[in-house]
Amino acid sequence: MWHQASLVVNRLTRATRYRVVVLTSSPEDKLKLFGAVTAILLLIGWVYSVPALHTPFDSYGNICVEDERARLDNFAVQLQNQKSDVGYIIVYAGRSSCVDEAKYRGKRAKDWVVKRGVPAERVVVIDGGYRKDIQTVLTLIDKEQPVPPPSSELENSQVSIHKCVDKVFARVLCPNRK
User: Fold this and answer.
1) Is 63 in the same domain as 32?
2) CA within 20 to 30 Å of 138's CA: 60, 75, 91, 174, which one?
């Protein structure tokens, strides 16, 4: 009697499925061959291990405007080079924040990336909630992958929200630069 075993593997670059069919004469041979095929595929890098799907490209806090633009320029270049990716800008307001601060910062960042030549539909802004300090996280994800979930560190009850228009709209200037 012949036994059949199947092994489904994914390539790391795409979710293409391959089926390896192993025909053996006994269950013991099936396990041996199945293990050998798996080991070979592991060696050549075809067995799909779940990578960190949402590894940030970059992140920054309340930095000066020139430094922010430089980071966003790098993000825009990567998006232009990786045509199948979507850029996510996840903005977290700080423990002490202004009304709609994360939305404003996210829009400002997206506008800059779009100004650098990236189509607006490939840049998504997410209000991530609250963290101890203001933080913007830039992530590149293939459009076939799920949207990265925000990881807020603080509950709404732990945050102090102020109505302070001047603070949000003022850009942080870089010290010792002209």
Assistant:
1) no
2) 174
